[in-house]
Structures are given as structure tokens and as C-alpha cells.
Amino acid sequence: MSVWIAIGVTAVGCYLVKYLGLSAPAGLLERPLVKRLAALLPVALLAALTAQQTFSDGQHLLLDAKAAGVAAAAVALVLRAPFLLVIGVAVVVTAGVRALGG
Amino acid sequence: MAEQTAEQTEIRTTERAGPPGPPLPPEPAKPDSAVIRDALGVGIAVGLSGFAFGVTSAGAGLSLLQTCALSLLVFTGASQFALVGALAAGGNPLTAAAGAFFLGVRNAFYGLRLSSLLGYRAAVKPFAAHWVIDETSAVALAQPGRHSARLGFTVTGLSLYALWNLTTLAGALGAEALGDTDAWGLDAAGPAVFLALLAPMLTTTVERVAAGLAVVLVMVTLPLLPTGVPVLLAALAAPAVLFAEGRRQRAKGTRDAAEGDPA
């Protein structure tokens, strides 16, 4: 049940912000500081989420095969690999390291 | 050639039976086929990654119905990955939803920029809003005028929505067939998606410092705070870095003024 609550709250919240942007009078959110914060917020959140999901099980820090997979994805990104290939590299390397006992 | 372009622009302007919007600059001709090709390229490439979401969500313990509901109703990838990741870690549902919501806030700012460009009627906006995401905004905002922006937005939105939901279903079903998704390395898909979304955003020092600070904050607080809270706390790296940058620039401005002072 709590999963459905989370889904419902997220769906309604995410829809409302999309609609708000499309319908708000221009200028309402156009202040430079607000725009800069809106651009920087996803950077902080995505960085935190990447680190958390790579180096923890949600509660405890851990270093396992996932770290190797995500590191390989980072290399693929530096080499300008397309989006799907980056994900594929992370999955294959993680599975490979895990199969080798990592 | 220039005359022909002007003529086409003229025709398009009269064809626009939409509401009065702010006047747009004259629209250079861009063939519809080129717009559709760009839009489908983005829609198909990103739409396929719904498979990774379906697998991740099923691996996180969400049911098939819950997984598909997320792709149908939330339809903004980073928020969906964040939500299932937080739920899998055993986070409180509202904390998990808060993290997903904050990631979705950027779509409001895409909407603001799209609003005058697309010029949709008030009755269309509730439907168009659901498709206001990274990819549709990127394609629409890259177009030279309203006609091609609307076309790009619609084709990207339609192809991406259809594929994202189909591949979500396929991924969730596939994950059930695979059994232990971790053994296949599929738990690495979520963080790899976040990293791939993050990488193009790290354009200047400000973004890199904010990302670095967020990583430090989440790593330090992870063992101490309830699940899901560290990520929200790490979001404070954004205002903190902006505040520090503002102070630095003011200090620099004062110094420059002092140096420039002939006295």
C-alpha cells in the first residue's frame, strides 16, 4: 500500500510541476536566481543518487561489483558513447565482475 | 531562395490559427521530414531505455502494475528511477516521493520556455503538459519556429511515450523471467542512468563543485540518517554553491572596483 501512496504522490506532484510551467505567466519564475537554482538542483540530486546507488545498499556503505560497472559507464561517457551503450556497459561489467566473484 | 523562404514563412504564419502569443521571429524553413527525423531519433533511443527502468523497478520489488503505472503516470525517467531506488532501499514512501518530485521540478522550467514557443490553447495544455520532459524540450527548443517546434514536440512526445511504456512492460516481464536481476548486473542500470543524465550537465566549475559537494554530503550522512533523507540533504549543495558563488562574485566586483579606482 505504501508503494501505491509513493506512486500517487509522485505522479500528481510531477504532473503539477509540468503543468505549472506550461501555464504560468511568463516572468513568474524568470528571476535569474530561481532559474540558476532550478538548473543546479538536478545536478546535486543526480550526483547524490549516483553515489548512493553505486556505493550503498540504501543504508550501509559498500563497495561491490556495481562500482566497477558504474566506473566503466563513466569511461564510456568520457568516450562519448550513446546513452544506451553507457547503460549496457555498466550492466555487463557489473555482471562480469560479479561472476568472477567480485 | 530568400524570397521563397519568406513566402513559406508567410504561409505558415497565416496557417497558425493558434491563440495570440508573443510575436515570434520569422521562421526559417526547416523541412518537416528533418524535424520528424530528429524527433524520432531521440524518441526511439531514449524510449528503449524504458527497458532498463522496467528491469530496475521489478528488481526493486515493485509489481508489474506498479511499474507500468509509474511509466504511464509519472513519465519523467530520473524521477521514476529515484523513486524505485528509494523504495527498494526501504525508504519512507513520502521521503522517496519527495526526492522524485524535486528531480521533476526542472520540468516546470522547460514548460516556461516551451509555453511561448508552442503557443498551445489553454484546453490543450493539460494534455501537452504530461510530455514536458528533458527530451521533448530539447527537440522543441532546438527548432527555428512554432510550426517545427510543435511538430518536434509532438513526434518526440508520442514516440517516446509509446516506446517508454512498451519497453517498461517488456523490462518488468523480462526481469521476472530472469529471476535474480542482481546476478545479471542489472542493479547497475539505475546509477548508470543517473550518471549519463548528469554528465552533460557538468559544463562549468559551479556544476562540478555542486556535484562533488552533493556526493560528499550523501556519503557522510548515509549511515547516520533515515533512508532517503541523505539525498534530499545533498540537494542543499545547489543553493549552497550558488550562495558561495554569489559572495565570491560580489567580493570580486568590489575588488575590481577598488582596483579600477584612480585614487
UniProtKB/TrEMBL annotation, chain A:
Keyword field: Membrane, Transmembrane, Transmembrane helix
Transmembrane helix among keywords: yes
UniProt-listed InterPro entries: Brnchd-chn_aa_trnsp_AzlD
Transmembrane segments: 6-25, 37-55, 67-97
Protein name, UniProt field: AzlD domain-containing protein
Organism: Streptomyces piniterrae
UniProtKB/TrEMBL annotation, chain B:
Protein's membrane topology: Multi-pass membrane protein
Skewed-composition ranges (Pro residues): 19-28
Domain of life per record: Bacteria
InterPro entries membership: Brnchd-chn_aa_trnsp_permease
One Pfam family matching this protein: AzlC
Biological process according to GO: L-valine transmembrane transport
Annotated transmembrane regions: 39-62, 151-172, 184-202, 209-225
An annotated GO cellular component: plasma membrane
Cell location: Cell membrane
Region Disordered, annotated ranges: 1-32
Membrane in keyword set: yes
Keywords linked to the UniProt accession: Cell membrane, Membrane, Transmembrane, Transmembrane helix, Transport
Family: Belongs to the AzlC family.
The protein, known as: AzlC family ABC transporter permease
